[in-house]
Amino acid sequence: MGNPTVTRPPQPWTAPTATEAVTAAVRLPGSKSLTARALVLSALATGPSTLAGPLRARDTELMAGALRALGTHVSTSDDARWLVRAHRLVGPAHVDVGLAGTVLRFVPPIAGLAEGRITFDGDPQARRRPLGPLIGALRSLGVRVDAPPTGSLPLTVLGAGRVTGGEVVLDASASSQLVSGLLLVGARFDRGLVVRHVGPPVPSAPHLRMTVQMLRAAGVAVDDTTPDVWAVEPGPLTGRGWEIEPDLSGALPFFAAALVTGGEVTLQGWPHHSAQPIEQLRALLQRMGGEVTVTAAGLTVRGTGRVHGIDADLSEVSELTPVLTALAMLADSPSRFTGVAHIRGHETDRLAALAREFTALGADLTEAPDGLEIRPRPLRGGVFRTYHDHRMAHAAAVAGLAVPGVEVDDVGCTSKTMPEFPALWSELVTNKS
Ligand SMILES: O=C(O)C1=C[C@@H](OP(=O)(O)O)[C@@H](O)[C@H](O)C1
Ligand SMILES: C=C(OP(=O)(O)O)C(=O)O
């Protein structure tokens, strides 16, 4: 079993404070979720595929590396266009998942289709991310998986080169990725796949819709008409050209800057129809005092400088919680966020981490089992620990717009999904973009 990834040295960073309204048109990297899915679907397809505008970041490089390790030809030398040529899936191989939930949940089902022994491990924190229901599902499909009794990394899949398929029942309340990972490969199983979720609600519904939409775009028949049941017909996947949209979750801190400073931020290259949860984001930002418009120039968020507190169930958009918490901290009334118990199993226990680090900056917030309650009051500067979580760094950056002296212990963790974050953020705040 390989050792967990060696950690890089921490990169301390003082979040810049805004002295005037932030007004900018930004071009941001591609979506992590779209890039990960496009890579996986391309590796499972019959013909070659291309990804236009892919995200180059740690999570997607790890996904490309994982698929390469299994025999897929993935060329990432051109930033604008990646090429994928599927190949027979083979082991032995080792997959480093880093801290990427997508690699952790999407690649083990693919390993079941490979011939040979495939080992998986990642960062120390990845060993704490929920995986047990996926291991159970794969075993019930006849895939041989060796894993600790905790149902987590490190993992070995002894791939037989084919999976019969059929129906699996699992509790995916800990992560929608447990379902997405199975659905993405299901068409390559001899009899296809039916996934049935039993348990508390599956979070992040828009990510499940994204999975279904992209499967259909690859020529796969998926029936998702029954709640909590997804049926994938067996059949070939078509190689194709994937257009990767800018990452909406990664854009949130930039939009938040418009709200906090009373400015205007346009995300360039926003598509007319998106697979990402734009309507949920629009509603949240509007309720918090912003105005969201989509024009030919892109997706624009305008703020007044006043942020309003809200009561919101964030289960559909849970990865937005850290930055929304920072916004709520700077609001003119209290906020309550619910429906996100599962983010305790994200890169870190986000509810505990947000409560601890914002309290250290003088905030008044309470951690609930499934969310946070935030009562705004003036904050002070201080050290803000990220726990290797990119979205903790984004949250600190947003708070730092209004609070001088927010010292992020390691902004390098933003390389998970946006290595250029510190540079783009400094440009934004100094109005040089
Ligand atoms: O499938 C995906 O690309 C994702 C699904 C969501 O996971 P959870 O359902 O675990 O929240 C989301 O939070 C994550 O950032 C990306
Ligand atoms: C939860 C997240 O990531 P992952 O894909 O690693 O689950 C996230 O990006 O907020």
UniProtKB/TrEMBL annotation:
It comes from the Bacteria. It is found in: Cytoplasm. GO terms for biological process: amino acid biosynthetic process; aromatic amino acid family biosynthetic process; chorismate biosynthetic process. Monomer. GO terms for molecular function: 3-phosphoshikimate 1-carboxyvinyltransferase activity. Transmembrane segments: none annotated. Keywords: Amino-acid biosynthesis, Aromatic amino acid biosynthesis, Cytoplasm, Transferase. 3-phosphoshikimate binds at residues 32-33, 37, 175-177, 204, 319, 346. Phosphoenolpyruvate binds at residues 32, 101, 129, 177, 350, 391, 416. Catalyzes the transfer of the enolpyruvyl moiety of phosphoenolpyruvate (PEP) to the 5-hydroxyl of shikimate-3-phosphate (S3P) to produce enolpyruvyl shikimate-3-phosphate and inorganic phosphate. It catalyses: 3-phosphoshikimate + phosphoenolpyruvate = 5-O-(1-carboxyvinyl)-3-phosphoshikimate + phosphate. Its EC number is 2.5.1.19. Pathway: Metabolic intermediate biosynthesis; chorismate biosynthesis; chorismate from D-erythrose 4-phosphate and phosphoenolpyruvate: step 6/7. The active site is at residue 319. Residues 18-422 form the Enolpyruvate transferase domain. This is 3-phosphoshikimate 1-carboxyvinyltransferase. One of its GO terms (cellular component) is cytoplasm. Belongs to the EPSP synthase family. It holds the Pfam family EPSP_synthase.
